[in-house]
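To: structure desk
From: M.T.
Subject: fold request, one chain
Message: Could you run this one when you get a chance? Sequence is below, nothing fancy, just the single chain.
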Amino acid sequence: VWVPEFGRHKKVMFKKINIGVAVVSFFIFAVVYIGAYPILDFLYDGKYNNGVLLLRLFALVGVLRMFYSLNSSYIIGKMGKKPIRLHFFFSLGSVLVYCLLLYFFLSNFGVIGAGWALLIITALRLASSYYVVMKKWPKKEIKIEGGDDFPVLE
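Reply: Done. Structure tokens follow.
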């Protein structure tokens, strides 16, 4: 989603964008978390009110995915071949891990297990994307400026 934006500019204020995403996503999460029961009650006339935990899990997954898509777009839009390749292999490996998690959690916990498996794999993918972004790549590959927690690339 962010790839065109990152590709257009020489400098990307990655830390500021992360803060903005955090504010927006946590606000949305809070609304969904607090309003999970009324939302399900309104939409389905009480038929699926026992799905509150699952809706809350999905809301948390949504927060993590916002950060993951930001990192993924940054990697694709601003970083060189080696980081992109590493990101690809992390993504490919996550498919296998997700299948294993789904099998285990669905077998043991039913539908709510699928929600937990999704939350776990999303957190792992987010961690791997931050690893790729924060890894110190050779100077040839990318040029890192500034002393912020997140690199500002040219």
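Reply (cont.): The first helix runs from residue 3 to 8. Let me know if you need anything else for the meeting.
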